[in-house]
Structures are given as C-alpha cells and as structure tokens.
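Hi R.,

Here's the chain you asked about this morning:
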Amino acid sequence: MRLRIFLEPQQGATYEDQLAVAKATEELGFDALFRSDHYLHMGDGTTGLPGPTDAWITLAGLARETSRIRLGTLMTAATFRYPGPLAIAVAQVDRMSGGRVEFGFGAGWYEEEHAAYGIPFPTTARERFDRYEEQLDIITGLWSTPAGGTFRYEGKYYRLAEGPALPKPEQSPRPPVLIGGTGPRRTPRLAATFADEYNVPFSSVADTGAAFDRTRAAAAAVGRTDRIVYSAAQVLCVGRDEAEIARRAKRIGREVDELRLNGLAGTPAEVVDKIGRFAESGAECMYLQLLDMADLEHLELVAAEVAPQLG
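And here is the predicted structure, written out as tokens:
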C-alpha cells in the first residue's frame, strides 16, 4: 500500500506552506504529493487567505525543490485550460521533475470559482463531459505522437491543425493519467479507455469497492488487457489518543465521530485497520487529505506508526 499526501491549498495556503509539506513528504518516506486544482475556497469555515495558487505553477516549483516524490493533481479541471497548452505545461513540469509527474484530470464541477475568475462554465454536465473526453483524446494524443510526427484533431469542441505535438514529456509515452469519481457509466468507460489509475474520492469502503468493480467491468467490456491501478482518497485525522484526535478534528472544523465514519480517523491502529479494508476492496494506493498544512507532526505520526504496519 502506497501512501500519498493530498493538499487542498485553495482553503488557505501559500507556496511556502506547500513547499514545507512537500519536503516533509519526501523526508518522511511518503510516495507522492498531490494537490487539488481550485481557484476558490469552499465552505464557510475559511476565507481562503492569502488566496489561491495555480496547481501547475506550484508543481513546477516543487519539481525543482524535491528529488524523489511523485507530483500530481487530484484533479486538474478540464474547464480551466485549453488542451494544447495544458499538454505543454504538464510535459514541461514532467521534464523539470525528471519524470515524476502524474496527471489527474477531471471534467470540472465547481461553478462558483468559474464565475469568480471569469472562466466559462458549460451549462450542462453532458457538455462538460463531452469537452473533457475530447481533451483526454487530445492531450494523450499529443504526448503519444512519435517524435517527428504530427497530430491533428477534429472534434465538436476542439480542432487542432497538423502540429509537431511538442514538447514531449520526460516519461514515455506519457505521464500516468488518473481519472476519478463515482459516476456509474461514463466515468468507468473513460477510466477504462484512458486511465492508468482510477481514484475514488471520499467514499465508504463498500462504495469504493463497487466503483472499482464498475471500472473493472468497463475495462473488460472494451477488451483492455493492460493494468489499471485502483486508489482511494480519504481525509486524515490520526492521533495517539482521543485528546489528540479531537484537537486535530477541531482544527479542520470536523467532528471526531463523523471523521471516523467518513475518513481515516482515530488511533494509528484504527487507521491501519481501515486502510486494510480499502486494500481488501482493491485499493493499492491511499491519498491522505491533509487539511491542516501547519501540522507536520501529523505526517510524522503517520510515517512512524501507520506506514510501517502496511508493508
């Protein structure tokens, strides 16, 4: 079981805050650091100060400040960027990192942040997913085009003339593509078609296993034979005793009982047991959502008392 740290910087974090977590992630032996891709905070419990940081600009900086950990997004929003420039940006960060980037990519959903920053937001879910599928075609097509070849695309929403399909990522033929969500039909099909990894966020063990099964069935239906990695994301709240668990829950505005039900919360032994149940459902990797980025002792506890028990 690989453990990855997952940040939500739109809730209030500087680049320096994220860099401190990235360095701790690397020093403590975790597999990767991922971050969300949002431009507006969520919920009434935070102002989001000092304001958002762009996901791929941030990851470019972290690529030069780290040497081992994988770096990526859960999930880059297709609504934020044109597919051609996005393929260029991710390929560049992959080269800057020496081939450590993983590309989590989603359709986009948070309408308020689009309005706040003047980003067009398709009015229907169908259009968002249609655009998203075209972008998946284009980005993976640009990366996978052989050096010296050209790439052309004619879609409903995007058209690319014959182009050099450059730059190439460091990883060949491309960085791993992550697709996530719990949609019953289209998400499994897209994961089966494009994804190297399928991620289920913030769901119960049972619902996570059911979503994995739908994607396995979709992969079989399209005749896919190469392997898909299955992963889950859960909020993290670990403490050595009830007082420490309660203190960490309070810092992120949550209740302990609710977190025990809906996240990875409790003592190290409780968290190891729950991760084990996710593993039994098919998860090979867990994304630990660290909402209090100032609490690096939280990561130290997980590294010392949870990770060694997971093999």
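One quick note: The longest strand covers residues 229-238.

Cheers,
M.
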